[in-house]
């Protein structure tokens, strides 16, 4: 597995993300991504940013097409 993306709807999903990351820990090239659930976008983006600053193994994933209202 080269990528693990976890959709974050609420704060409990951070625990789920960490649990899931344990299953890919053996692959040092696996990219770990946190993506806000679209309907919680405004609320969760700042929380995700704060989380990845404390846990730099994670990166943020955004659906830019939705933010730009393309789709």
Describe what this molecule looks like in 3D:
This protein is of the alpha/beta class and 71 residues long. It has one domain. Helices cover 41% and strands 21% of the residues. The chain has a 3-stranded parallel beta sheet with strand order 1-2-3. Strand 1, helix 1 and strand 2 form a beta-alpha-beta unit. It is globular and about 40 Å long.
Span from first to last CA?
29 Å
Helix % is 40-55%
How many helices? The count is 3
Give the integer mean of the pLDDT values.
91
The largest β sheet comes out as: 3 strands, parallel
SS elements, strand count: 3
Number of domains: 1
Q: Any idea what the shape is? A: globular
Short note summarizing the structure:
This protein is α/β, with parallel strands linked by helices. 41% of the residues lie in helices and 21% in strands.
What features would you highlight for this structure?
three-stranded parallel beta sheet, 3 strands, 71 residues, 41% helix, alpha/beta
SSE topology:
Blueprint: E1 3-8, H1 12-22, E2 31-36, H2 41-54, E3 58-60, H3 64-67
Parallel strand pairs: 1-2, 2-3
